[in-house]
Every structure is written in C-alpha cells, then in structure tokens.
Amino acid sequence: MTEASATQRNTAAQVEETVEALRAHGTDIVRVIYPDLIGVDRGRDILVGQLPSACGHGLSFCRAVYHTSPRGDVVPVAGGLEAGLPDVCVRPDLSTLQALPWEPGVAWCIGDTFDPATGEPTPESPRALLRRVLEGANSYAGGPVTPVVGPELEYFLCEADPAAASGWALYGGATGNVYSAGRRGDPDGHLLRTLRLLADLGIGVIAGNHEFDGGQFEINLDHSEALDAADRAFRFKAAVKETARREGRLATFMAKPFNALGGSGFHLHISLTDSAGRHVFEDPGAPDGLSASARHAIAGLLRHAPALSALLNPTVNSYKRFGPDTLAPWLIDWGLDNRSAMLRIPPERGAGTRLELRLGDASANPYLAVAGAVAALLLGLRDKAEPPPPLEGYGYQEDSAPRLPGTLGAALDALEADEALTELLGTGFTDAFLTYKRNEIERFQQHVTDWEFMEYAFQI
Ligand code: GLU
Ligand code: MG
Question: Does residue 212's CB lie within 6 angstroms of at least one atom of ligand 1?
Fold first, then answer.
C-alpha cells in the first residue's frame, strides 16, 4: 500500500482552511488519537497552529506504544524494545475531525501511523490492517463488494467504592431491569446524558437501553461502510470511557467483569453491497431468502471462527463470557433469528438482509474485529464454502456443533494455524499480535488469583 492511500494526505491549502475553520469555531486544541493494538486510544493534544506540521511531518510517538500492556509493561515485540524503541509517526486524517461536546475548545481527529523511514503504514496499525482487508473486498474476483457494518456494544458502569477490593462497584446494579429504559436501572440518567453527548459528537449513535444485567448498558450505532463503522466504534468506546471518567465513574468494556453476571458483547451486523448498490445477501427466490453469497459468507465465518476469536475475544478474560445460557455464544453455529447461535441471521430481508455476528466481546479492538470478520467472510465467498444446516431451537446443546476455543491460548494457536486468514491480515500484523498476546497469557499464568487463595488456602 502506498503512503498516500494509507494516510489520506491533505493539501497544505486544505489544512490551512481547516485551521481557519477550527479557529472560527473557537477550537484551540486538536486531540489526535489513534488505536493501538488493543484498541485503546493513544494520542496527543496539539495547539491548533501545529496542525499543518502534524499533517506534514506527522507527530512522533514511540513504536512501543503498540507493545504496551494495559498496565504499562512494554512487551518485547519485534521492532520495539530490541530495535531501541524507535519512532512511528501519526498523521491526522482530517475527514474524521469532530468537536468534542464535553471538552469545549477541543476537536479530535483519528490519525494513521507510518514508519518515518519508509512512509509505509506501521505493520501493527489496526486501521491499516482494516484498509488492507477492504482492498481485498474491492478486488474480490466475483466483483467488488462493499462490506457494511453496524456495531452494537455493551458495557458495565461502575462507581468508586473504597470498600471494594478493586475500588469499584456496580452503578445502579438492581436486578430485573432487563432491556429497560428509565430510572429503575439508571438512577441518575447516565444513559440519557451519554446518548445526548454522543449525538452531539456525531458518530451515528442511534439508541440505547439498560442491558440484561444491573449496571450494564447497550448503545447501538448505525450501519455504514466498514472503515467508517470501525472508526465510529473506536471513538464510541473512547468517548464512553472518557465521559464516565469525567463523572468519576468507570465504564468498562472488559468481556466479563463480574463472576455472578453475564458478559458484554460486541455484536457486528454485516451486509454486503455490490458495485450497483445491490444487497448481495438477499435472494427472495432462495430458501430463507438468503443468496448463495450469504451462505458462503456464513460458512466462511463458521470455518474461521476459532481463529477469529483471537481477534474478537482478545483477552484472557474473554473466554469466561462464553458458555451455555449466556446469550453469548459457546458453539460454532448459526441460526435464523436465533440468539443462542454464534451467528444470527436477523429476520429482516430486502435492504435489511444481514448477518449478526455475536461472537465478539466488548473488549475487542473494533478495527481488528471488523477486519477479521470481513476477511473470514471474503474467504467464504472465495472458497464458495457451504454452511451446515442452521441451528433449530435451543443452541447450547453440547455436541450439536464444535466448541469455540476455551482459552485465549487456544484461540491464538488457531489464528496462527489459519494460514488463509493470516495471509489476508498480513503476517507483519499477526506476528506482532501473537507475540503481544502470548506475553499476556504468560503474565497471567504467573499471577496468583483470588480464586486460588479461596480454593486452596484453608483446607489443603
Ligand atoms: N450480553 C450478551 C453477550 O455477551 C448479549 C445480550 C444480548 O443479546 O443483547 O453477547
Ligand atoms: Mg445486547
């Protein structure tokens, strides 16, 4: 990929115009953010007058930002520590510039990282990875297709609680407010405030409700082309975490924060259009109204599911969300309007014909989740893969379908072994991801958990 296509360079005149427009709106700071390997927003606040330089040379960051754990350990991934912690540069993509409703005078903007020596995208860049996969959709042998994605994210909201071991306890927390709106499950109107801020931000948020468990919320984003959808989901997570922090609260997207409660999903609604704008998954004359391409796409997602789970369920904790009777998946299966399946085909047809991949949890990096799902779907189309019959009824029957990986380690092994998928994603990326994530497992395995103390300390 060339530098120009990777980083959306703007002309000097466009940048100057943007600076003028920002100043006219009273904006004096631009927050340039970009996703790291795990989807966390890294970034820098720059004075608006620095925008031309940022859009030219780029902003320098240490490449090891991609290799840093959520707690700040630098993991030895090739190109980082052993290479002397070199720079990557970040160039703002001005098409993503937006005023921050909760931070007057500040606008934010997503940046693209590149290697200053070559101008090429950084191999770890999740946004570059998604662009690579989308080029595959664009050059698909059966004719270019455009993946359209609607992200659906769940999270738990916590309040500071000095008495809790972690320092945090569930907000609200009363049980029974399943899929409700209003103050029963949301005593001080967190959801209304958040929806309004997000509406002002302009990332295509359309609705929200209290989720299944106490203190858990879901907010839906409109569907759009895959890169834009991932950009919006990335900013959504950053915005929800940031606005909760401003209120002294913690919004957590971890997969399963509490033993007694369910997990948080990151469901992806995916459809395809062809170059004439037709909905590729629809065929009114075919069984269930699903085209051959829809069947191939379903089969691709099922076939590559073990590897995909490394990207869509990327933490040690993710595998505790899977299980029978969870509304999260457990088996590699699909079903017609069946929420107990990993892949649900919602009942709408026509322009609404789509797949709902329920595999992902909220901790997934939106770029990796979307890239992985689109890549698996394209492989299904390429191979003209056929799915097994759909699940009927209750979906958590052991042995009715293969099990999803039970641990992050098994998922990483499946990713490494899935050569078709890693080739599409690029081994520059997957090698870094595997090293980084295997280090996470190693650190976890060295750590003595509360469970071990309670299990072993008293009787043995
Ligand atoms: N919380 C469930 C999950 O982890 C999904 C619940 C729902 O169907 O909305 O995927
Ligand atoms: Mg939900």
Answer: yes
Q: How far apart are CA 359 and CA 365, in angstroms?
A: 13
DSSP string for 382-445:
HHT--PPPPB-S----TTSSPBPPSSHHHHHHHHHH-HHHHHHH-HHHHHHHHHHHHHHHHHHH
pLDDT averaged over the chain? Answer: 95
* Structural domains of the chain in order of their starting residue, each with its CATH number: 3-122 (3.10.20.70), 134-416 (3.30.590.10)
Would the pLDDT of 2 be above 70?
no
Indicate if ligand 1 lies below 6 Å from the C-beta of 360. no
Give Cα 413 distance to the centre of its chain. Answer: 21
209 lines ligand 1 (CB under 6 A): no
CA angle in degrees (0–180, nearest 5) for 313-249-151 = 35
Pairing between β-strand 106-114 and β-strand 29-35 as defined by DSSP bridges:
parallel
| Residue among 112, 108, 111 nearest 120 (CA) | 112
Query: Would you list the DSSP string of 262-311?
Result: ---BEEEEEEEEETT--BTTB-TTSGGGB-HHHHHHHHHHHHTHHHHHHH
Q: Is the CB of 358 under 6 A from ligand 1?
A: yes
- Output b/e per residue, 63-101; b: 16+ Cβ within 10 A: bbbbbbeeeeeebebebbeeeeeeebbbbbbbebbbbbb
Q: Give CA–CA dist 262/383, Å, rounded.
A: 36
In DSSP notation, 196-264 reads HHHHHHTS-EEEEEE-SSTTEEEEEE--EEHHHHHHHHHHHHHHHHHHHHHTTEEEE--S---TTS---
Tens digits of per-residue pLDDT, 260-295? Answer: 999 999 999 999 999 999 999 999 999 999 999 999
Q: Which of 180, 253, 266, 267 to mutate to test the pocket of ligand 1 (most atoms within 8 A of CB)?
A: 267
